[in-house]
User: Fold this.
Amino acid sequence: MRMKSAERDQRELKSQVIQQKVMNHELFGQVRVMMLYASFEYEVNTNIILSEAIKKGIKVVLPRADKKSHQLIPCWVQNLTQDLSRGIYGNLEPQGQGLTAEEMTNIQWVLVPGVAFDLEGRRLGHGLGYYDRFLEHLNPKTIKSGLAFDYQITDSLPMDKHDIVLDEIISN
Assistant:
């Protein structure tokens, strides 16, 4: 039990470092619309980024997973307590209406979770392709940043033809 608690404490400390890097990133002060994710316990925590982005007046988008189609449905989030509830995988998800195709073109920065990342911007997700299918439909100018703990980064990962390479990895 102590081991899990220590691991959780270490993840939280590393998450704080990564969240601070995101909030100090030049894009955080420039973008009008950004997409984040509501994290699972083992992922980089995004709660502080979410709160600060909303306070700063950045329009925030969070994904909702559609289990039937294996698609991410991006939705506006303005209030973290009112707009979110537990989704099909147990994490918090927005329950509002999804963005239109035109609104999706306005997303300027996407923060992406993953299981593993490499130095070239390749990522390994959970194997269902939700993010790769979503990312391929974004405006080509949208910046895609992976959030990763240091132990999630490796020298190289295999890549399939449908995999989307990220622009950068932000780590602790």
